[in-house]
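Fill in residues.
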């Protein structure tokens, strides 16, 4: 119970992690929504609607990160939740890379995004467990 009341101070490093995520995820979301056909051709996915749905879904974590970056303190449970969402994204990306025949560019792109998400998630886990 006491764990839920724990607050984490949003210091400059944590603020940078959230801003980096907000900007990166926001750009990613816009590219997927606006350039779904081109993205599909590059990565080897024919369904542009699927790509657009991923883009629309990416707006929510980008918005959360932007909101979190503007706070002085955050409930620790939110930091843990967002770190766990990052972990789920990375695991999902790995599974997709095995199940879907992406192009080489698609594999590189998905692996790069997964790496960046893992990096951000690692920082969030660090802040959760050390504060």
């Amino acid at each position: 119970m006491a764990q839920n009341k724990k607050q984490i101070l949003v210091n400059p490093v944590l603020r940078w992690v959230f801003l980096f995520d907000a900007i990166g995820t926001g750009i990613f979301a816009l590219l997927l929504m606006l350039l779904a056909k081109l993205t599909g051709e590059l990565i080897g996915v024919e369904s542009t609607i699927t790509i657009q749905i991923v883009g629309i879904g990416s707006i929510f974590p980008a918005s959360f990160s932007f909101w979190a970056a503007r706070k002085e303190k955050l409930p620790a449970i939110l930091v843990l939740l967002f770190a766990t969402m990052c972990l789920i994204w990375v695991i999902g990306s790995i599974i997709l890379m095995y199940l879907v025949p992406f192009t080489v560019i698609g594999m590189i792109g998905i692996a790069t995004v997964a790496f960046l998400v893992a990096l951000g998630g690692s920082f969030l886990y660090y802040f959760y467990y050390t504060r």
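The mean pLDDT is 95.
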